[in-house]
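Weekly structure sync, notes
Attendees: PL (lead), two postdocs, one rotation student
Agenda item 3: pending single-chain targets
PL asked that the sequence for the first pending target be pasted directly into the notes so everyone works from the same version. It is reproduced below exactly as submitted, 216 residues in total.
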Amino acid sequence: MSAVRLDLADTALDAELDIPDEPTGIVLVVHTGDGARDRTVARGLNAAGLGTVVLDLLTGHEEELDRVTAALRSDLELLTLRLIGAIDRLTDGLEAAPHTAGLPVGLFGAGTGAAAALAAAAARPRVAAVASRGGRADLAGPSLPRVRAPVLLIVGGADTPVRDLTERAARTLDTAEIHVVDGAAHAFDEPGALEEVTTQAADWFNRHLTRAATRR
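Predicted structure, written out during the meeting:
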C-alpha cells in the first residue's frame, strides 16, 4: 500500500493505493470519516485480485476537524465533483501507478459516499460497477435513472429506515440488486457482518469489471 495525493480542481485529496499483480480492475473506495471499515473492505478486495484507491473525500484533518464537517459530509454536489475528478485521474493513470490507466473502474461507498458514487457513475459512464454499504442511495435522487452501471446495494437487516429507502431507490436504477446482511445494523459491527459485505462486494466487482475488460 502507498499513500498518494490526487490533485483536483478545488483541493488535493489523500488516498491509499494498493494494486495487486494483474488486477481485475480498480475500485475507488470512498469515505468522509475515519475510513476504518472502508480500509477493511479494501483489504478484502485486494485479496480478491482487485486494485483499490481508498479515498478521503474530505481533505484530511483540516476539514475533518472543521466546525462545518457535518455540512460538508452532506454536501452531495461537492463530494460528487471531487469523486468525478478522482475518476478522471484514474482514467489518465496515476503517477504512482501509471498502469491504472485503462483498468475498469468500480466505486464503493457508504452513507453519503454511496450517493456520491451513484451520482458520479451517472456522470461518468466509464464506471463499470457500483457497490454500497448501508448507503443512502436515495440521496442521489435525479441521478439514479441515469446510472447505467450495475449497482449492488448492501444493507443491514436490522437497519430498517435505510433498508426502506434503499428498496425505494433501487426501483429507479437501471440494474440493481439488494443484498441484506441478516441481523446487521447500520455500522455492520456484528460478528461476520463486514466480512459478508466484503465478500459480496468482491464478487460483484470481479464479475462486472471482468465483463467490462472483455468489452474493451
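Discussion points:
- The mean pLDDT is 88.
- Strands lie at 2-7, 12-18, 26-31, 51-56, 105-110, 127-133, 151-156, 176-181.
Action: rotation student to compare against the earlier draft before next sync.
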